Amino acid sequence: MELAGKSIVLGLTGGIACYKAAELARGLVKQGASVQVVMTQAAMHFITPVTMQALTGKPVHFDQWDARIPNNMPHIDLTRDADAIVVAPCSADFISKLVHGGCDDLLSTLCLARPSTLPLLVAPAMNVEMWENPATVRNVRQLEQDGIAVLGPDVGDQACGETGMGRMLEPEDLVEEICAAFQPKLLRGKRVLVTAGPTFEPIDPVRGITNLSSGKMGYAIARAARAAGAEVMLVSGPTALTTPAGVQRINVQTAEQMYDVVMSHIDTQDVFVAVAAVADWRVANLSEQKIKKTADDAFPKLEFALNPDILAEVAALPNKPYCVGFAAESENLLQNGAAKRQKKGVPLLVGNIGHHTFGKDQNELVLFDEKGHTQLPLADKQQLAHQLVAEIAKRLA
Ligand code: C5P
Q: How far lies 198's CA from each of 234, 238, 239, 327, 364, in Å?
């Protein structure tokens, strides 16, 4: 519930991406926001106010002269208690209106009359030629100079049958971007590398050794660091999770691959957060062909080799970034966590109980540093990730 207590005016303008605005409204409500939809006449060709009202629980506004507002000034009243205005989809025409201060309908008038401190975020959606037209390029540059956040667009297949830049960001990515807009930019200008998920160490082409890490905590930290303004790289073992919006993700399978990717990018990082549950051992005598079950039930003899300890090696580099380790323990967390911090040579180690966290949406953390330990009580992993990012930023400062 990252948007609990937030009031968002969601503006819809004319474009086929209006069908995605229904999912966006639902996503914002799911995050706890109160959503007031305002539609242009063109938007109502694509989706009805009935749909948007049903999803947000509030009557939709589309008329400048709406007598439902006691003083008949919806262009003022609708934004004075709002925490943000989001226009999604935002058409080329509406971008042009925002740039030139046009105000011939409720939504554009409301945007022009917004308090200067009220954030305005727009998610462009249009045909690729419209997006690449020099007029739109000029307008978008001007929007950004005016302090309006431009989210997307994305590249890909378009409803018109053409392919290119201009698709509206997917609703779940927009929800993430909107949540991020409310986070303080504690890591602005910093580069953060996060490892996440399990590793998979093959035995033969179809079998392997892995663990129960879902990657949720690491992905939440990557998302939180991005929301705090950092440039984030996520090196991930096999997971079923979607990449957090705006995060560069590199997929790996084994600990050695994770080591290689981390080491080739570590020089430019300010912070390294090792959340991955990296296998300590790999199979040294892995078979090129599938190992067959033999009639006499003779078991295959696996030999193991030690994997590189990525965190310890990064922490030992002469020009190391600020290093944060994780410890998934099954017992004696306080003792083991403090000892692991020393052993790994990191300034901050985050402890959790492995079988309490693996695969779950909630977690509780214990932070170990040179002064002792602090508890972050049971909460959603995303909420804990924001708290952890704030703790990291405090220590960086
Ligand atoms: O030694 P242990 O596996 O408990 O240490 C956990 C911490 O070390 C985590 O931060 C994990 O990401 C990191 N680690 C690593 N490379 C390994 C083993 C663990 O980076 N080979």
A: 13, 6, 8, 13, 19
